[in-house]
Amino acid sequence: MPVTNFALKEKYKYQNGFDCYFETEAVPGALPTGQNSPQKPPLGLYAEKLSGTAFTAPRRENKQSWLYRILPACSHPPFTPAPAPNESLGLGGEPFRKLHHIPNQLRWDPFDHDPEADFVSGLHLLAGAGDPTVKQGCAMYVYAAGRSMGEREAFYSADGELLLVPQEGALDIRTEMGWLLVRPMEICVIPRGVRYQVRLAEEGKPARGYALELFQGRFVLPELGPIGSNGLANARDFQAPVASFDEDCGETAFDGPNEYVVTGKFNNALYRAVQRHTPFDVVAWHGNYYPYKYDLGRFNTIGTISYDHPDPSIFTVLSAPSDHPGTSVADFVIFPPRWLVGEDTFRPPWYHRNTMSEFMGLIQGAYDAKKGGKGGFVPGGASLHNVMSGHGPDVDSYEGARNAELKPAKVGEGSCAFMFESSLMVGVTDWGLKTCQKVQAEYSEHSWGGVKVHWKKTTS
Fold this sequence. Notes:
Layout: E1 5-6, E2 14-16, E3 22-25, E4 46-51, E5 64-69, E6 80-81, E7 106-108, E8 123-131, E9 136-145, E10 153-157, E11 161-168, E12 171-175, E13 178-182, E14 186-190, E15 196-200, E16 207-214, E17 238-241, E18 245-246, E19 260-266, E20 269-275, E21 282-287, E22 292-295, E23 316-321, E24 328-335, E25 338-340, E26 357-364, E27 382-385, H1 395-402, E28 409-411, E29 416-422, E30 427-428, H2 430-435, H3 443-448
């Protein structure tokens, strides 16, 4: 039968709210009333529960959705190992087990575009820590795609929840639960297990960006504490998709009219199954486990109005808490345009050593703490300052801020840097350290080799 995409006219219609319980149906009457799994769900659909947490997780933490679909997700032939799409995602997940843990500060030039790659083959593992088999840790990626995934292709990760940060080129992401258009200065989170397809919003216009995969837990909004009930990212500004589906299937699961390739990431290795029906056949769904997007321009920045430079935790958009209160497996932090008014205050980030690892990227513009240095910190590039590795503003940024006349000033106009911050010691892949050939070899020397001595000797 021909493919019919229902709800196409409302392709980018969204529901608003973070951690809300949503319900949506592309065909009226597709959602059952009063029961999740009646003996015969409406319209001859199958009921399938998608659980993001243990069944017995506390109610406030429980994440699950009920999908009502034409055929269940289990109806496919066995998965078989897939060839490695690139050196950083090798067969068997070997690159993740050979990470280099080094104390040196690292910075990368902008990563190359790849006109031949789609999202999956253009996803490069850069750094990480932990083990997805015991659901601990996280992984950091860059991606570069020059073409869309095929119309009969889908991808999912059993390893973790994926946060996407586009830097260049918009992504048209089709998920089992509906569509998301994700542009630079927006982010997207796709939960563990959700199947999706990434297309370029404008064919011929390449896409590039960053990604963080969370093996442990899930992203939540940070607590506001003394800030009160307003500030940072507001729950109302997060958007989830509405139901949209194809009806491309035969009379049974294995006699459909077309072949669809589903690629799964499992323990940092890829597996592939070919099935005879579309994976995008969810007619309706309800629950609180779903993909979502957020416009970074809606972030309500908090800062000092007296003196001193607050900790960067005030810029946290999303947080993935660990078992230790106040310490995160990963935080997603941004540095958007903002006013600085602090008196007698060194306004850029101060020099520091951190028990957390800090991976930074630049979406657009220029970062106010990195003005000089050969190569520079530019959009599409990145830096990594690992656990207790000293870092801070480069020489030009420091001297400028040290001698600046402190009037109210807006910094970061037209700019946005971000940080993946983790309590874990992060290792770097061979690809990130050598193969990509983007490491700035003299980053440390060019940034801090010329730091001046301002010490005024005392006389005895």
